[in-house]
Amino acid sequence: MKIFILSDAGSIHTKRWVKSLSENGCEIFLFGLLDTDLSFYDKMPNVTVYCYNFTFNKSSIAYKWVMSKALYFKALPKIKQKIREFNPDILHAHYASSFGLLGAMTGFHPYVVSVWGSDVYDYPNAGLIYRKLLEFTLKRADKILSTSHVMAKETGKYTDKEIGITPFGVDTDLFRPIFDQQPTDVFVVGNVKTLSSTYGIDVLIKAFARVVEKNPSVPLLLKIVGKGPQEAELKRLAADLGVADKVEFLGFIQNDRLPEFYNSMSVSVSLSLRESFGVVAVEAMSCECPVVVSDADGFTEVVEEGATGFIVPKQNDEAAAEAIQRFIDQPKLRCEMGQNGRKRVLECYRWEDNVATMISYYNQILDK
């Protein structure tokens, strides 16, 4: 099966799909737009990668035009050329508002679109023309896919087509409990997210400060993994709240090192304002780490309230602190919910099963 993929070549999500589909016998041509390091794809069997290489200063007006999709159309002739040369069985675009629109413009069928999040939550709300462009893209698609049921419901506002579900799960052999890891008396609260306003890390720091104040005799630590535009602001907040000495900003950590980090946590806390699919919660649960999450849509789908973790209202640091406190007061709860989380991931979010689901959709499309 030959799949032509339009997607961000630098995205970890794209990398995982391409690698797994290749390992399952698919021949892949990946077309990206922005210049990025492609070394991940070196020596990968049955995979060809081409980047159009839009290279602009991120502060420039030109870059903003690219990100608003206007200049993407310059790549359309090259995409059509590469499609003719590769002669795929299926064209699959990941992210409906950029790659998806370009895929729709090629006129190639069968055509698959995967929605990722902001392309259906934010993009159509930017103005009538954006809504119409999204509706056009979805209308051209022979199949629409979503990583979650909640995002499929949101996508359903712009199409009456049936939407398939392809969860973005985890490698449960990689994300697993590490029982030989050295135990510690420190209660560790952890977070893995981009340091931006969307992900409620300021709310987390405020919640952590509340927990510190309530537990003066308990050794506490907040570990934050990720980089982003709010880093300096968040560090100032931790200092202002008097907890800077108990908050570690660890920067970016490679995906294959994250299991070690999750295993060092007592609880994983993610308080996003919006989440299309709660992959960080799934990763933590797969490592038998209980979670506290906001009631953003993606989290409410993957986390079982009171069984694998606690769900709290968005932007409510007091509720988040109370949920964290329950794990301090009831150590056995961490073990019970951690085991429940691992069980849920094995049932619903094993990456091998998710890839098999994607391939089954491909086969259904070709059978039609």
3D architecture notes:
The protein has 368 residues and is of the alpha/beta class. It has two domains: 2-169 and 351-367, Glycogen Phosphorylase B (Rossmann fold, 3-Layer(aba) Sandwich); 187-348, 3-Layer(aba) Sandwich (Rossmann fold). It is built from 15 helices and 13 strands. Helix 11 links the parallel strand 11 and strand 12. Helix 4 (99-106) packs across helix 6 (128-140) and helix 13 (317-329) packs across helix 14 (331-348). The radius of gyration is 21 Å and the shape is elongated. The model has no long low-confidence stretch (mean pLDDT 91).
Briefly characterize the structure.
The protein is built from 15 helices and 13 strands.
Keywords:
single chain, 368 residues, alpha/beta, Rossmann fold, seven-stranded parallel sheet, six-stranded parallel sheet, 15 helices, 13 strands, elongated
